[in-house]
Amino acid sequence: MSRFFDKFSHGRLFLLAGLGLFVVAQTAIAGENPPPPSGELKAAGESQTADDPLESINRFTSSFNFMVRGVVIDPLVDGYQAITPAPVQEAVSNAVSNISEPLTIGSSLLQGDAENTSTAAKRFIINTTIGLGGTQDPATEMGLEQRKEDLGQAFGSGGMNPGPHIVLPIIGPSNLRDVAGDVITAIVNPLPLAAKAASGGVSYSNNQDDIKSLSAGALDPYVVERDSYEQNRRYEVNNGVVPLMDFPQFAEDEEEKKNTR
Predict the structure, then answer these.
(1) Other C-beta atoms within 10 Å of 62: how many?
(2) How many angstroms from the chain centroid is the CA of residue 216?
């Protein structure tokens, strides 16, 4: 047994060392390309092309995931929705969402977001107690709106670049920054990561038709899926604030100038 724990500890050390190198590399990149000042968002006109050096591998994995969704996941979701009453589905969704609150608390705290840290803590206490173990959501009725946070968002808020786009088997699109956040979360406590995975399953169940229609008519479903993920993560890192587009300023032609004089 002691040998097992020794190997496990060594594995954790190697993993942490690798993550440390990743953080150092990202910090160096951020130093060469400093992020905007706090509160200043990227203009919509700036280049936001996804970093995708692993595109060939990602495309293969994405095709595999699409096949698994069609053959395994979609039938399971359809069966779950068919036999499970709507109130039970809502209770399951609420419970899974409640389990994710501790991760939101920690991630918000790392960002110095005292308001969301307090909100998430209150939500967790209220929904776990009054909300019957999180199956109900009285906190929202009290005006405590949920805003989920994770370590990937915390890293992004601190100026860390997303890194290369990565498509994970079954799980789907991600990037190096978000994968690093999930790995660290799993090392500290695997429960929040399990809750995040469960939340993804519940979210897919609730939005199955919308997700399918997103890429149904696309010429390249992979690009749609990739860009949708990266844009959504930018949206979440910025806490839902969408920057205004910088529209080009067109000079008035000579005729208009004459008419305005």
Answers:
(1) 20
(2) 22
Decide: helix, strand or coil at residue 51: coil
Q: Which of 121, 113, 125, 119 is nearest to 144 (CA)?
A: 119
Q: What is the pLDDT of residues 166-178, one digit of tens each?
A: 999 988 999 999 9
Q: Give the pLDDT score at 136.
A: 97
Q: Which amino acid is located at 121 in the chain?
A: A
Mean pLDDT, the chain, as a whole number? Answer: 78
At 51, give phi and psi (nearest 5°). Answer: -80, 110
Amino acid at 252: E
pTM of the model: 0.71
Provide the residue count of the chain: 261
CA distances from 151 to 34, 38, 56, 228, 234 (A): 20, 18, 27, 20, 14
Per-residue model confidence as pLDDT tens digits over 182-225: 999 988 888 877 777 777 777 777 776 777 777 777 789 999 99
What would the DSSP string read from start to end of 135-187? Answer: TS-HHHHTT-------HHHHHHHTT----SEEEETTTEEEEHHHHHHHHHHHH
Q: How many CA atoms lie within 13 A of 124 on its CB side?
A: 16
Backbone angle region of 143, left / alpha / beta, with phi > 0 → left and psi within -120 to 50 → alpha: left
Distance, CA of 110 to CA of 117 (rounded, Å): 9
